[in-house]
Amino acid sequence: MNLSTWIARRYFFSRKKRSFISWLSILSMLGVGVGTMALVVVLSVFNGMDELNRKIFKTFEADMTVSPRQGKRFAAPPELLTRLRQTKGVSLLTAVAQDNALARYANGQTVVRLKGVDNNYLQRKQLDSALLEGKLKLSDRGVNYAIVADGVRNDLSISAVDILTPLEVLYPQSGQTFSVLNPDAFNQEKLTVSGVFFIESKYDNFVLVPVNVARTLFGYAPNEVTSLEIQLEPGVNENAAKAALQDVVGEELLVQSRDDLNIDLYRTIRIEKLLVAITLAFIILVASINIFFTLSMLVIEKKEDIKILYAMGATTSLVRRIFLTEGAIIALTGAFTGLLLGILICLAQERYGFIGMGTVSSIIDAYPVRLDISDIALTGALVIVVTFLTSWFPAQRAANITSR
């Protein structure tokens, strides 16, 4: 241990009585610790929210989606489908016809998001963990089935075990004058509800049906779709697969990853995380300002001691290092304690979930958290920089005053 560190430790730990400066040092340490702990916890919660949204989207959306740059539908000839299936990394390709429609069941009706999909959609097994009631089935022995979201089930009071009451889906005919009194103004399909799923409120108005049913209802040609959904093989690089698929489909179509489809949400989470981090960083800065006042008063209190050090041959740099080390002890002790407590709180929340979401309709019971080593490193670096800035000026002042 060098001399400057030994003297700084004596100033902080070996005071015979607690003075105002001592209590101010403890207060500064606690302020830095609480701010550091809060920063670690809040950043981890935002990381958990980001990860939770990715899991939610992965339950319903495909790895890659091909859609038209203009309009809402396009022709997908067999040649294009074959080339896409043969693209390296592609596991499954699903044709999708999707639009809003009117759904009726018994005496109820509501507007739904009708999504027609190929039978291989169920091979993706995304909805297996989201099934609440019934079975995941789209067609069987010539009978067409519908899989409805829990929100649609609640709006229409649907029973998945009632095979006698059909789900009627209506869509306005192209070229017809719209009128609710004209039955010929709508295309109509009747389906049996096979199952009910729940993922998140964003998908609570979806109804899944066979793609041929959706094409007939929307008046699409046999090869027309609104999008093509592609599942990639495990371990495939998404950026490379996206570029390869874009080369296949050309410029008129757009290939988007799951993150691309939800980029606005991710951007919002990142902005909120940044703003909260800046706010908590200012709190740490305010707490660290106490270190400035603590060291400034300590310089006055220890003025005679520093004169003795100079008389014994101490240099200006040694005096400066003493007070820089004193500030580092105060701040880093608080920061280390705050980091440790923040990590322990996050690990406990991740394991036991003792802080709940507080809403009955939430898909999870407790706040999600995910520790990120980069956040911890950033928090530590922030404390070090703030400590150096708040400690430098009192230390420099001490060196200048006592060297006269």
Automatic annotation (TrEMBL):
Lineage top rank: taxon: Bacteria
* A GO CC term assigned to this protein in UniProt: plasma membrane protein complex
Spans traversing the lipid bilayer: 20-46, 274-300, 322-345, 376-395
Q: Which is an annotated Pfam family here?
A: MacB_PCD
Q: Which UniProt keywords apply?
A: Cell membrane, Membrane, Transmembrane, Transmembrane helix
Asked if the Swiss-Prot or TrEMBL record annotates the protein with the keyword Transcription regulation, the reply is: no
Indicate the family of this protein. Belongs to the ABC-4 integral membrane protein family. LolC/E subfamily.
The name under which this protein is listed is: ABC transporter permease
